[in-house]
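Table S2 (continued). Query chain:
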Amino acid sequence: MSFLNGISTGHTPLGQNGRGGRNSAILELIPEHKTGSFRWHRHDYPAAIACWNYHPEYELHLITQGAGRAMIGDHIGPFSTGQLVLIGPDLPHAWFSPLSEGEVLQGRDVVLQFSQNWIEGLIALCPELSGLTRMLAESVHGLEFTGVQALAHAEALVALGSTQGPGQKLASCVSLLSGLSQSPWRRLSTGRDRTVAGGDGISGAARINRLVRQLLTTDPATIRHETIASTIGMTPSGFSRQFRAVTGETFMSFVQKLRIGHACHLLATTPKAVTDICREAGFSNLSNFNRVFLGLRGCTPRQFRQQSRQIAAPDRRVHTRSLGAPKRQLQEA
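Corresponding output:
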């Protein structure tokens, strides 16, 4: 497997930098659609557009194939085929998939983007759409849609790209957003860190960024501070300072997010005991695991498993083909 693609050298993938500045997610400039109210497009992975980025528009993002780790605000967690997420304005986000050399996931991402002015104006004009308000407000955390409704909405999003006629396309888009607002979702990011711009120019940032890409494909239980530091030719203390200066958070905090993300995946998809998941995620004792889990997720592992079962969708992988086969590298409507 190659390292995950998409984090540009010199751009910090997470958090605030060590001087109180903002992290360097890339500002994505969404082309203005003078003949349309929103932008729909589909792209391959890897692609230049598939990077750690943010923008002032709302974004509905569907993964049609592949798996990996998603980074949305301060959330780091696994994703798989069928994940459907609403990203709020200026919330940094990216989906990274481990790939073999030369591998390309054609049409992996289907994206719908629309401006705050457009959707707020539409709600003001049409009181029937007032139900969108709560969903849009919650989207500052990144919302993953769940349950059987998520699959239907994913299919509607794919179909939107081939809908003929501007009037029908607009109606389909509004219907999709209205349906989403009545569907179950879960928050991904805590919203504590929504900083996005700037750069620090610290020497060694490239090494840290390459390391972050590697860690995202590594079993989090095997990550050790001293070992990682030595692999990039730094002392443990020097590595810790450099990592925090570049990413804005401690190395241990970053690893804990990886481990809790892995634990969440196991809790939601396997019947394994919490004690076994604790060890498999890389925690040496259950009390520490529960404490870190509660701090990052706001609930205990058992509560998370119960919530996941209540909103669990059917296995999305069996529906991969229904999400539509891409015809070229970039499609836009």
